[in-house]
């Protein structure tokens, strides 16, 4: 029997629990006011807010998080770890404090889970940056760096590599500029330690780096030597993390008797753009015949530091952010992101703390495909129903019993001037067989919700 779920009606402007109006949303034990204009978070997403996979020491996401924290603190124990921030944040902390333009696509309801006009489920760990920088500014935290790991939430497509909840790690390091340039000496000494540790890693890293400022300008208040040292310190820190976790993967491959192992790890730095850093980069790793993007980073914009209370131009800082789930899928060779969320012990019993082991599939259950095609209401265009809105209805009805959803066809009838869309849904459980009758009931509920929410006419 299907459980009632909180559904947001995009066009009709009401928050309903299968027809019952709700004025509050309860998340992590706290109640928040809902509103007709912005609330779009659903009960199926709320049910995931307390899982905190990154805190489970024998879960792939938790294993990876702990390995990175340990490695970064092995140089000078400079980072305070924050792993228990609650997922509800303000719009200001999530977007405004980081300099997101008002028209940035990340702010849209099609991409973000809003609780009301002022609060949302964080879309990235950077939502807590200002708070953590403030702890350093106010000397409430003596360590000059911090690491934030947390679950983050985004309305997204449904397939094997996307999930509405995933996990990020954010790292930042701060140097206060002194009259006698003490921070330059600190940077140089810390950088020398990083370089020494990289030289001692078992797996050699070969770096390709275009470090020119063309197309990636530095902030004007920083001297050339500050930009150079801060950039090098950031890059060597990230390289040390990548070297460590890929070395753990190679150890696993050696245990499994893999014959051909790479003798070196090729990485390249690519210029990038992020609203809260300048200059900015991404790092890619050559792995199993392809370049894989692993991490975005850069030197923190002064406006971000000023919002945390630092005096203008008094501080330099770097920051990085990486997705733990994507990296864990790669290193543990996990084929479907839904497996991270399974309660099946056949998954959880495969992993142990501090070890990166290859996932061993325990079974492959067949999928069952259904199509749903409909005419849009008169006067509505294709962009009036966002693909993520359809995905959310399917997700809210079927949860992790859906492998993927694809828009397979859309057209305008030449004579009737009616617009049609067709979505293909593949139902598949990671843990058990689904019966045809069970899939049919799920599909009936999806169709019912599409009609109720968008006034479509089923073809």
TrEMBL record:
Keyword Flavoprotein: no
UniProt main location, coarse: mitochondrion
Reaction it catalyzes: tRNA(Phe) + L-phenylalanine + ATP = L-phenylalanyl-tRNA(Phe) + AMP + diphosphate + H(+)
Protein location: Mitochondrion matrix
Entry EC no(s): 6.1.1.20
Residues in Aminoacyl-transfer RNA synthetases class-II family profile domain copies: 87-361
EC category name: ligase
Entry superkingdom: Eukaryota
Gene3D superfamilies, alphabetized: Bira Bifunctional Protein, Domain 2, Ferrodoxin-fold anticodon-binding domain
FDX-ACB domain location: 363-459
Gene Ontology biological process terms from the UniProt entry: phenylalanyl-tRNA aminoacylation
UniProt KW keywords: Aminoacyl-tRNA synthetase, ATP-binding, Ligase, Mitochondrion, Nucleotide-binding, Protein biosynthesis, Transit peptide
Any one GO molecular function term: tRNA binding
CDD domains the record matches: PheRS_alpha_core
Pfam families registered for this protein in UniProt: FDX-ACB, tRNA-synt_2d
Family: Belongs to the class-II aminoacyl-tRNA synthetase family.
NCBIfam families assigned to the protein according to its UniProt record, in alphabetical order: pheS_mito
Function as written in the Swiss-Prot or TrEMBL entry: Is responsible for the charging of tRNA(Phe) with phenylalanine in mitochondrial translation.
Protein name, UniProt field: Phenylalanine--tRNA ligase, mitochondrial
Source species: Zygosaccharomyces bailii (strain CLIB 213 / ATCC 58445 / CBS 680 / BCRC 21525 / NBRC 1098 / NCYC 1416 / NRRL Y-2227)
